[in-house]
Design goal:
Blueprint (H helix, E strand, L loop, with lengths): L2 E5 L4 H13 L8 E4 L4 H7 L5 E4 L2 E5 L4 H11 L1
Parallel strand pairs: 1-2
Antiparallel strand pairs: 1-3, 3-4
Length: 79
């Protein structure tokens, strides 16, 4: 699974990024997995103040906000 969303409960920015991801990724046959920043100490140490974070193969590729056009470019680079 190349794309993971680092998120936390009650985060409206997380909800916004998730909506973009759920609109775009299925068009490319891709899915999304989730990681809770508050449940994983290593994630909390790195990203506590900057969620949401989109990880691709474990590397942060977007933080806070993500447009559909930016995500399309990220997906295209994957091919």
């Amino acid at each position: 699974m190349p794309f993971e969303l680092v998120t936390r409960r009650g985060c409206h920015l997380c909800d916004e990024m998730e909506a973009v991801l759920l609109r775009v990724l299925p068009r490319h046959g891709m899915t999304l997995s989730y990681r809770d920043v508050d449940a994983e100490p290593d994630l909390r140490a790195r990203y506590s103040d900057v969620v949401p974070v989109l990880l691709r193969d474990g590397v942060a590729v977007a933080k806070i906000r993500l447009s559909e056009s930016r995500l399309e470019r990220l997906v295209a680079r994957r091919r």
